[in-house]
Structure formats: structure tokens, C-alpha cells
UniProtKB/TrEMBL annotation, chain A:
It holds the Pfam family COX1. One of its GO terms (cellular component) is plasma membrane. This is Cytochrome c oxidase subunit 1. Residues 22-560 form the Cytochrome oxidase subunit I profile domain. One of its GO terms (biological process) is electron transport coupled proton transport. Its EC number is 7.1.1.9. Keywords: Cell membrane, Copper, Electron transport, Heme, Iron, Membrane, Metal-binding, Respiratory chain, Translocase, Transmembrane, Transmembrane helix, Transport. It is a multi-pass membrane protein. Its main location: membrane. PANTHER family: CYTOCHROME C OXIDASE SUBUNIT 1 (PTHR10422:SF18). It is found in: Cell membrane; Membrane. The lineage of its organism: Bacteria, Pseudomonadati, Pseudomonadota, Alphaproteobacteria, Hyphomicrobiales. Cytochrome c oxidase is the component of the respiratory chain that catalyzes the reduction of oxygen to water. Subunits 1-3 form the functional core of the enzyme complex. CO I is the catalytic subunit of the enzyme. Electrons originating in cytochrome c are transferred via the copper A center of subunit 2 and heme A of subunit 1 to the bimetallic center formed by heme A3 and copper B. Pathway: Energy metabolism; oxidative phosphorylation.
Automatic annotation (TrEMBL), chain B:
Keywords: Membrane, Transmembrane, Transmembrane helix. CDD domains: Heme_Cu_Oxidase_III_2. The chain crosses the membrane at residues 50-71, 83-103, 123-143, 155-177, 202-226. Coiled coil: none annotated. It is a multi-pass membrane protein. Residues 1-223 form the Heme-copper oxidase subunit III family profile domain. The keyword Membrane applies. GO terms for biological process: aerobic electron transport chain. This is Cytochrome c oxidase subunit 3. Gene3D superfamilies: Cytochrome c oxidase, subunit III, four-helix bundle (1.20.120.80). It is found in: Cell membrane; Membrane.
Automatic annotation (TrEMBL), chain C:
The chain crosses the membrane at residues 40-62, 83-104. Coiled coil: none annotated. This is cytochrome-c oxidase. It is a multi-pass membrane protein. InterPro entries: CcO_II, CcO_II-like_C, Copper_CuA, Cupredoxin, Cyt_c_oxidase_su2_TM_sf. One of its GO terms (cellular component) is membrane. It catalyses: 4 Fe(II)-[cytochrome c] + O2 + 8 H(+)(in) = 4 Fe(III)-[cytochrome c] + 2 H2O + 4 H(+)(out). Its main location: membrane. Residues 112-254 form the Cytochrome oxidase subunit II copper A binding domain.
Length: 593, 234, 275
């Protein structure tokens, strides 16, 4: 595995560490390309994920153009439309959100926030990125393969995913999709091992679990869940690939396709759905938990107030992580599975709402009696609360088995999951980038552009997805290339669809200001100094900004306090860095509970 | 999905046990300024690679538990026809057990710094594992000749895919074992070498366990065992 | 200030949109009014929470915005407050879950007197089978499907003789009679969905699923496929026509000629069947 033992707790931390050869890159290539520095790997991950995100964004534009103005764009035929939705969904969920939160933020923040020099297996970490890149290339190559990419929907339900009535089903599309997913999972496992073991083994002296910032808790829990959930997708992909390539019958029963009987028998389509959602539901929380963690830190830092109910926040994270493995079949209420499962899964699903609600309360209670600085990261955090609460509450509709019956497979579902696992986590990603950009580059991002980007993105995204719920409530199914004439759909619904499309185009376009801001500020941004937000966590206390490979110079930090000592009564400034010894809080609040 | 849930509950118990020793109930804001009373002294004893392999085995375990879940879900449908268990599988099992034992011995040889013994153990482990793999290939050939082809029915497909996946994991282990052996021949004993041997042994034991569970299900003993447990409970 | 105001406007706008926008569910035409009621109740509970949370956020943003000399309070936690909030949330969740499970029980418990009908999906059309005079559907098998036996009925089964087949046409149902629809697919997964009936269920190849409902309003309603089934997915439409009992009987008489026996006479009674 790896031969370089890095600072494990205690022994190494207590005395100055000798120069480690590894931390001195010898050439440009080892510094920026085949780098083993988690921070460089984080940026590589993020840049690739952003590029995939831009492709997926353009795909969403194309779909919206077809839905808003059906028939106007003749090149978006049914085939192309289904390929667009499939690639958009798969790219966004797996290759963008998972990769950004874990590969991007995980790599950058975990070693810095727990006070380590790097990940524990830097070589495996580097491989993880290159394997991820390979997975992305295989996926994107399906655009150029004969027959184009798969059009099976991101859920890839067999038998249709591998039959000729679906784009890419009997061509290369589905094969490349499955192979790419398998490569991704292998790459992720390499990274995931690093994230988990680094948190377990490489924390600085004094960094007990309960002193860790919630960002680390969120990414740690999510990584662990991802390690256990992705195998389900892997197993499903292997079996589906065998069905497609070798003609086995894992998921294909005896069927008659377009009048021709197929030489298969005995497969179970529901088996795939169980495997898929056994991955698919934890995946929602794999994206959400890092967002929860990050937003907690954003709110706390910019409201100058300790996160309210830290212990509850940690327990809730763990509870959500554990519960999310026993709710998967709530995606299958109308799938024809044993209907009695509905009772169990509706109950577990609604129970998960309780720890989630506690987190929301604690965020807003952190704002309460705080000292709120409405910086760009804080604005994004507030927008996260609004969109997440909105999307989370509509989840109570869909989780409650009988309410799901009329709503499932309609635009209501599309609106719900975009709000809760699309818009909300992406707002956190933006907020986090505005927040940590000064540490990564040493310069602040432009504030005016940031606010423009924020308001258009937030209000625009809300305008896209809030009204969409009502299209679903009306009964318009999802995944319709063309609604056509439906007796129960009034003409005004088409106007609403056109409105949503226009909003989507605007929101998409305004992301360019963000991309511009990223590059412009690199050169012209205000110099930030080491700790512009006056934050307590370790990453802001590095001797140099941006931190070099090895992070901490000669001596590892020692941690004396939890991550949320903001506005401690009697202290001479409104924050106490985690590595600052001495001052002990005598606040009456500290004695509560 | 009972198998995977069972497996995950096992992991959850371990996680809960570990977390319970991490002071999750403590109030960190009251403990500012101290670094001495850290609860994680036992952490620092295990090396990162050992913990890393442990986590990796959790992933591999979840992978095979899911296969077994799928297998047993499919098995419940009325048209299920088991694959006959080729006799050679028993020999293969014996070989894999030998490999595991050899590595276990290698572990203690390494601890005793007996390089000669260690080399013999590593060689024995490699040879018996290769024998296991070739035996598996023979089993495939036999079944295919008897007409149990991959596409014949779901039971066949499961057999080939699960044994194949298990074989690939063994093959991956052999790469690591090869590198360890190379090191054992090239240099005298060292801490990294001892660690590698330990990691190999851990990996082999785990894959042996996976194989035994799968074999138990193939022969139907697993089902019988579960039935007995169920009767004991009710 | 502006931020707080915009948050308030989002709440006001969302509630106003909910109340006055013309986009709402279609009038119901089945017995599943309970489902609608559960949705309305869920809207009330979740709506209240949404309004409360966002307004409270807006209040905090306004009241505790940064001003010179202001310091945040230091209060790591407040067990009592958290316990209260947890309890209230649990009650709210239970208030949604309990009626939901109660209605789900009804949804999956088919009444004794329900008539069996069969709905078959294939890429990309709907077919139906009514039981005929004996009130029972004959057996079917995927392997029997052929050009002149599109649903794969077993002609050896006497119950199948009088079954009425409707391919790609309209499904007629009498008002007020509970129906148990047995759902079958010959190729990929489809989903039987009629917005006005509120009921919905997947048709899965290799198994038979079911859904039941009682039509309560006459008229014709569109059947949509609600599970992606290939490129023709949006074109997979059908019609349910709910009629008064008399009209239904009249229609049924006209369809006797399309019974299975007429379409595909079994060899042994080729002569016996008058035409």
C-alpha cells in the first residue's frame, strides 16, 4: 500500500518533524500533474468536476429548451432528449456532486482541518484522481460512440436500459456508462480510504473527535457511507453489464420485444432496483452530509457564534448516516414490490426527518442572537437553508407512501430532488468556494460579482423549481420528451414551462460570472492574508497562505479547544483559534444543560 | 437484502463500540485548554495501513454481501435451479485454507525475524493460492462441459460471476503477496516487511471467510444453518 | 435589511403562488379522496414549517445583523429547547405518517367484490382484457405470445374463452364498481397512471402487480405511462371511459365478438363456435 508513515496522533506531533523528502516536489510535473499533495489533487478533482458540471449544465439547457418550446429545436428529438436527461442526471449526481464534495473539498479540507500534513496514503490518493479522470473520459466518450450515450434515464432500469427501444441500449452507450461507473467506484474507493483513515489516524495532537469541525464530520461520515453504498452500484453494474454483453438473465425475464421473443428467462427487474436504490438513497446523503457540515461552519463563522447544539449536530449526522441505509425502497413504492414493505419504509423515511429537522433548527438558532455578517458565503448559506427546507419538506410528501402514489414519476419528484440535492448542495459548494478561495489562492473573490452571482442563482433556481412542483401535482409525468396534448393540462401550463426554461437559461448563463470571478480574482483579487474571516478552525492558522505541501512548516499544530469558540465572553477578540492555548471560557452559557 | 443488512449491522456495532470510546457525550466547549486526557491512545498503536486495509475489507465485504443478497433474493423465486457443486471445489477450499495458514505462520515467522522460515511460508502461500485459482478454472471448465453455461440460467450466471469476482480479488492479493515476497528475498527483515506480511495474512483470512460463506450457500448448508437459527429463536 | 425583506417576499410569494396559481390537481374521479386529503394535510403541516423557518431566518438576519460593537451570545447548547423542538417535530411527523399508513392499508387491500381486469403494457401501447361472462380471467404465459395471440393467453384454459381483448383501444368501466387491475408487461417496465384516478402502479415484466380503485365520475380519462420505457414513452397513451352501468352493458355486448374465442378459436371447437 504505502511506505511513508505520516504523522500519527501523539508521537510525531509532540516534537518538530524533520524535513520529509516527499514534501519537496522535484519538478513541475510532480508538483502540478502527478502531485501527491492532497491540496493539488483537490484542485484537480474540482476542475474536472466543474468541467463535467458545465457539460451537464448545457445538457439541462437543451432539455429545458425542448420542454419550454417543444418542436422548435428539431435536433432535440426523442432519442437525443433521453440521452441528455440520462447524462445530465448521472453526471451531476455521481461525477460532479460526489466528486466535488469528497474528492474536492474532502481532499483540500480534511488534512488541513484535522491538522495533518497530508492524506495518509498520498500515492493512492493521486491514483484516485487519475482513475476518476479515466472514468470521466470513458463517460464523455459515449457522446462520440456509435449510437450515442445511453438514454435509459440515470436510474438505468433494466430491461429497457439494454434493449433496442432505448437509445444506446443495444449500442455502446449503456456499456460505456456501466464501465465508467465501475471505474469511478474503484477510483472513489481509493480516495475514500484516504479520507476515512486520515480522519481516524492523522489528527493533530489534541484534536479529539468532538473537537472536529462539522465539515470534517460531514465529509467523514459521507465517505464512510459512500464506501459501503457504492459497492451496490458496482454489483448492479457488473450484473447489468453481463446481461447486456454476455446475454445472462440477472435482470431480464422472458419477454417479447417488438414482437420478437428474447432468449432470456428468469431475470428479476426488481432486483436491480433494490441494488440501485441501496446505493441511490445513501447517495443522496453522501451529497447532503458534506453540505450539512460545510454550511454549519459557514453559518457559525459568519454569524460569529458557536454552532448551536454541536453535540446534537454530530449525533444527528451519525443518525442520518445510519438510517439512510434502511430507507432505500421508498423509491419503489409503486414498483410492484411487495406492498407491505411500504409500511416499513414509509416509517423509516419519516423518522429520518427528525434528525434532519434538528439540524435545520440548530442552523437558524445559530443565527439567533448572533452577529451576522452578510458576506457572500453567508448569503449562500442562508439560501441553502431556504432551498433545503423547501426540498426537504416536499420529501415528506414523497416519503409518505400513499401520498407518493399520485406524485411519483411526475414533475413533482423532479422539482423535489433538484431542490434538495441539486440546488441546495450546489449553493453550499458556491458558498464554500467563496469562503475558502482566500486560503487556496491568497486572494479574495470579487464581492460585487459574487453578490450578482448569488442573487441570480438563488432567486432564479427557486423560480425554476418551486413552480415545477405544481406541474407534477397536476399530473404531468417526468421524462416526457414532449407533453403533447393532455386533456387535463391547461394551456397555461405550457406558458409556465416556457417561463421555467427562460429562468433556467438565465441561471445557467450567470454561472459565467462565477467562472470569470474565479480567474479574475486569481490575479486581481484583494490580498487576503492568512485568516480573512477571522475563523477558528486549523486551516486558517497555517504559517503560509496558500499552504505549501506539508501544510504546517516545521511543527504540527496542537489543538486546545473545539472549533466554535466565537464571541467567547471575556476574550479580547471574537474568536479563539483551535490551536490557541490558555484562555478557558467562563461563560454562563457553557454551563447550560 | 438480509445479508447486506446483517453485514452492515455488524459494521454498525463495531462503529458504535468505537464511537462510544471517543467521548461523543462530552461537552467540548468545557474542555478548552487541555490536551492530555485524549481518549485515543489505542488508536495510535494500529498503523494507518492496517486501519486502511480494515476499511477496505469492509468495502469488499459489502461488495460480496450484496452479491449474496442478490443471490438469495433470486433464489426465492420458484424457478430456481441450483448449480451442482463440482467436487474439485473441496480441494480448492483446502488449498485456500492452506494459503491462509501459511500466511498465518509467515506472520509469526516474521515476528520471530526468521527470514528463512518466512520465505518458505510466503512461497507456500503463493503456490497453494495459485493452486486454488487453477482449481477454480478447472471447476468452471467442468461445469461448462456438463452444460452449465453462463447464460443457461441465473444460478449459473451467479456462480460464474461471484467465483470470478472472488478470484479477481485473490489475484489482486497475489500481486501484493508477490511484492512482499520480492522484498523478503531482497532484504533482511524490516518493519515494513513484517507489516506487509501481516496485511497479506489479514486479506487472505478475509477472502477465505468470504469463500466459505459463498460455499455454504452453494451447498445449501447456509440455508440449513439459517433455518436452524430461526428455529432456535422461535 | 434587503436580505431579510427578500426572504419574507419568498415566503409571501410561495404562499400566494400556492393559493392563487391556476395549477392544481385535476378533479378526482375515483374513490381515493383520502389520498387527496392526506396531501392537503401534508401541505398544511409542511407549509407551516416552511413559513415559520424562513420567517424566523429573516427575523434573525434583520435583528442580529452586524453593527459596530455588537457581540454574539455564547451559548453552546440548550437541551431544553432542543428537546422541545425534537418532540414537536416528532409529533408533526407522526401526524403525517399515521393517516398515510392508514390509507396505504386501504390502498393495498382489495375489496372482495372487485372485478378483475387485466392491463397489459408493451412498447408503446396499452391492451386490456375483461373477464367476460364468467367474471374470471384465463391464464396467460409469455411464451404463448404470437402475432394472433398478442397477450399470450392459454387457450386450453376454459376461463380464457370468453375473455374480451382490447388492443390499443379504450378501456370501459362501469361507475361505482370496484376494479382490481392486474398489471402485466410483455417487454419493459411501464406504469399505469391516470391522473384523475390518483392510483398508479408499475407493470413489471416477469410478474403481475395490481392496483385497485372505484371510478366515481363518468367521462373519459387519459392513461399515461409513468415509467420511462424507451423513446416512445410519451406517446404511450390510452383512454379509460367510465360509464353508467346501462351504457357499459351496451358497450360490452358490442365487444363480445372480440372475445378470445372469436379471435383465436381452439382447434377442438372450431366448428362449435357460431359466427
Amino acid at each position: 500500500m504505502v511506505d511513508v508513515p505520516l504523522g500519527s496522533t501523539g508521537a510525531v506531533a509532540s516534537h518538530p518533524i524533520d524535513d520529509v523528502e516527499l514534501y519537496h516536489p522535484h519538478s513541475w510535473i510532480t508538483k502540478y500533474v502527478f502531485s501527491q499533495d492532497a491540496k493539488v489533487i483537490a484542485i484537480q478533482y474540482s476542475l474536472v468536476a466543474f468541467s463535467v458540471g458545465l457539460i451537464a449544465l448545457v445538457l439541462s439547457w437543451l432539455m429545458r429548451l425542448q420542454l419550454g418550446f417543444p418542436g422548435v429545436f428539431s435536433f432535440i428529438d426523442a432519442n437525443a432528449y433521453y440521452q441528455f436527461i440520462t447524462m445530465h442526471g448521472m453526471m451531476m449526481v455521481v461525477y460532479v456532486l460526489t466528486a466535488l464534495f469528497l474528492g474536492g473539498f474532502g481532499n483540500y479540507l480534511i488534512p488541513l482541518m484535522v491538522g495533518a500534513r497530508d492524506m495518509v496514503f498520498p500515492y493512492v490518493n493521486m491514483l484516485s484522481f487519475w482513475v476518476y479522470l479515466l472514468a470521466v473520459l470513458v463517460l464523455v466518450s459515449s457522446f462520440f460512440a456509435p449510437g450515442g450515450p445511453s438514454g435509459a434515464g440515470w436510474t438505468l432500469y433494466p430491461p429497457q436500459a439494454i434493449l433496442s427501444g432505448t437509445p444506446g441500449g443495444q449500442d455502446w452507450g449503456i456499456v460505456l456508462m456501466l464501465v465508467s461507473l465501475m471505474i469511478f467506484i474503484i477510483g472513489f474507493t481509493m480516495g475514500g480510504l484516504n479520507y476515512v483513515v486520515t480522519v481516524l489516524q492523522a489528527r493533530a495532537r489534541g484534536m479529539t473527535l468532538m473537537r472536529m469541525p462539522l465539515t470534517v464530520w460531514g465529509i467523514f461520515t459521507a465517505s464512510f457511507m459512500a464506501l459501503l453504498a457504492f459497492p451496490a452500484l458496482f454489483v448492479g453494474s457488473v450484473m447489468l453489464l453481463f446481461d447486456r454483453v454476455f446475454g445472462t438473465s440477472f435482470f431480464v425475464p422472458s419477454i417479447v420485444e417488438m414482437g420478437q421473443p428474447l432468449e432470456r428467462s428468469g431475470g428479476s427487474p426488481l432486483l436491480f432496483q433494490h441494488l440501485f436504490w441501496f446505493f441511490g438513497h445513501p447517495e443522496v446523503y453522501i451529497v447532503a452530509l458534506p453540505a450539512f457540515g460545510i454550511v454549519s461552519d459557514l453559518i457559525s463563522t459568519h454569524a460569529r457564534r458557536n454552532i448551536f447544539g454541536y453535540r446534537m449536530m454530530v449525533w444527528a449526522l451519525l443518525a442520518i448516516g445510519a438510517l439512510s441505509f434502511v430507507v432505500w425502497a421508498h423509491h419503489m413504492y409503486v414498483s410492484g414490490m411487495n406492498p407491505y414493505f411500504g409500511f416499513f419504509f414509509a416509517t423509516t423515511t419519516l423518522i429520518i426527518a427528525v434528525p434532519t429537522a434538528i439540524k435545520v433548527y440548530n442552523w437558524i438558532l445559530t443565527l439567533w442572537r448572533g452577529d451576522i455578517h452578510l458576506t457572500v458565503p453567508m448569503l449562500f448559506a442562508l439560501a441553502f437553508i431556504v432551498t433545503f427546507v423547501n426540498g426537504g419538506l416536499t420529501g415528506l410528501f414523497l416519503g409518505n407512501v400513499v401520498v407518493d402514489v399520485p406524485l411519483s414519476d411526475t414533475m413533482f419528484v423532479v422539482a423535489h430532488f433538484h431542490m434538495v440535492m441539486g440546488v441546495a448542495p450546489i449553493l453550499v459548494i458556491f458558498g464554500a468556494i467563496y469562503h475558502w478561495y482566500p486560503k487556496i489562492t491568497g486572494r479574495m473573490m470579487n464581492d460585487i460579482l459574487g453578490k450578482l452571482h448569488f442573487w441570480v442563482t438563488f432567486l432564479g433556481a427557486y423560480a425554476i423549481f418551486f413552480p415545477m412542483h405544481y406541474l407534477g401535482l397536476m399530473g404531468i409525468p417526468r421524462r416526457y420528451h414532449d407533453i403533447g396534448d393532455m386533456a387535463f393540462v391547461p394551456a397555461s401550463a405550457h406558458t409556465l414551462n416556457a417561463f421555467i426554461t427562460v429562468a433556467a437559461l438565465i441561471v445557467g448563463a450567470v454561472q459565467l460570472t462565477f467562472v470569470f470571478n474565479l480567474f479574475w480574482s486569481l490575479r486581481y483579487g484583494k490580498p487576503a492574508g492568512g485568516n480573512p474571516w477571522r475563523a477558528t478552525t486549523l486551516e486558517w492558522q497555517t504559517p503560509e497562505t496558500p499552504p505549501p505541501h506539508g501544510n504546517w512548516g516545521k511543527e504540527l499544530p496542537v489543538v486546545y479547544r473545539w472549533a466554535y469558540d466565537y464571541s467567547v465572553p471575556g476574550a479580547d477578540q471574537d474568536f479563539l483559534p483551535q490551536n490557541q492555548p490558555g484562555f478557558t471560557s467562563t461563560a454562563p452559557g457553557g454551563l447550560h444543560g | 437484502m438480509a445479508s447486506i443488512l446483517f453485514f452492515l449491522s455488524g459494521l454498525a456495532v463495531i462503529a458504535a463500540w468505537w464511537l462510544s470510546r471517543q467521548g461523543l457525550m462530552s461537552k467540548p466547549w468545557l474542555e478548552a485548554g487541555t490536551t492530555d486526557d485524549l481518549p485515543d491512545t489505542e488508536n495510535s498503536r494500529a498503523t494507518p495501513s492496517k486501519i486502511g486495509l480494515g476499511v477496505f475489507l469492509a468495502v469488499v465485504g459489502s461488495f460480496f454481501a450484496l452479491f449474496i443478497s442478490a443471490y438469495s433474493m433470486r433464489m426465492q423465486l420458484p424457478d430456481w435451479r441450483n448449480v451442482p457443486v463440482p467436487t474439485i471445489l473441496w480441494l480448492n477450499t483446502f488449498m485456500l485454507v492452506l494459503g491462509s495458514l501459511a500466511l498465518q505462520r509467515g506472520k509469526s515467522s516474521a515476528r520471530r525475524r526468521d527470514m528463512h522460515e518466512l520465505r518458505v511460508d510466503l512461497l507456500a502461500a503463493g503456490v497453494s493460492t495459485l493452486a486454488f485459482l487453477s482449481g477454480q478454472l478447472l471447476a468452471w471448465q467442468q461445469l461448462a462441459e456438463e452444460g452449465y453455461r453462463l447464460t443457461g440460467n441465473p444460478a449459473n450466471a451467479f456462480f460464474y460471476v461471484v467465483t470470478g469476482a472472488h478470484g479477481l480479488h485473490i489475484l489482486g492479493g497475489l500481486v501484493a503477496l508477490g511484492r512482499t515476497s520480492e522484498r523478503a528475498w531482497r532484504q533482511q527483515d524490516s518493519e515494513p516487511l513484517r507489516q506487509s506480511v501481516e496485511l497479506c495474512a489479514m486479506y487472505w483470512h478475509f477472502l477465505l471467510l468470504v469463500w466459505l460463506v459463498f460455499l455454504g450457500i452453494l451447498t445449501g448448508w447456509g440455508g440449513a444453518f439459517i433455518d436452524i437459527c430461526r428455529q432456535l429463536l422461535t | 435589511m434587503a436580505v431579510a425583506l427578500i426572504l419574507v417576499l419568498i415566503v409571501v410569494g410561495s404562499v400566494a403562488f400556492h393559493l392563487v396559481s391556476p395549477w392544481w390537481w385535476t378533479p378526482i374521479a375515483s374513490n381515493w379522496r383520502y389520498i387527496d386529503d392526506t396531501i392537503i394535510m401534508t401541505f398544511w403541516i409542511t407549509g407551516t414549517v416552511f413559513v415559520a423557518v424562513v420567517l424566523f431566518t429573516a427575523y434573525c438576519v434583520y435583528r442580529f445583523r452586524h453593527r459596530d460593537g455588537q457581540q454574539a451570545i455564547y451559548e453552546p447548547e440548550n437541551r431544553k429547547l432542543e428537546a422541545w423542538l425534537t418532540a414537536i417535530t416528532a409529533i408533526g411527523v407522526a401526524a403525517m405518517l399515521a393517516p398515510g399508513l392508514f390509507v396505504w392499508r386501504q390502498f393495498i387491500t382489495v375489496p372482495e367484490e372487485a372485478t378483475d381486469i387485466e392491463i397489459v403494457g408493451q412498447q408503446w401501447q396499452w391492451s386490456f382484457r375483461l373477464p367476460g361472462a364468467d367474471g374470471r380471467l384465463g391464464a396467460s404465459d409469455m411464451r404463448l405470445i404470437s402475432a394472433d395471440n398478442p397477450l399470450g393467453l392459454n387457450k386450453e384454459d376454459p376461463k380464457s374463452r370468453d375473455d374480451i381483448l382490447i388492443e390499443g383501444g379504450e378501456l370501459h368501466l362501469p361507475i361505482g364498481k370496484p376494479v382490481k387491475a392486474l398489471l402485466r408487461s410483455v417487454d419493459v417496465i411501464h406504469d399505469f397512471y391516470v391522473p384523475e384516478l390518483r392510483a398508479k402502479m408499475d407493470l413489471v415484466p416477469g410478474q403481475v402487480s395490481y392496483v385497485w380503485f372505484t371510478p366515481t365520475r363518468t367521462g373519459s380519462f387519459e392513461i399515461l405511462c409513468a415509467e420511462l420505457c424507451g423513446v416512445g414513452h410519451p406517446q404511450m397513451r390510452g383512454t379509460v371511459v367510465v360509464q353508467e352501468a346501462v351504457d357499459y352493458q351496451a358497450w360490452l355486448q358490442d365487444r363480445i365478438v372480440s372475445s378470445f374465442a372469436h379471435l383465436m378459436p381452439a382447434p377442438r371447437d372450431l366448428v362449435a363456435v357460431p359466427d
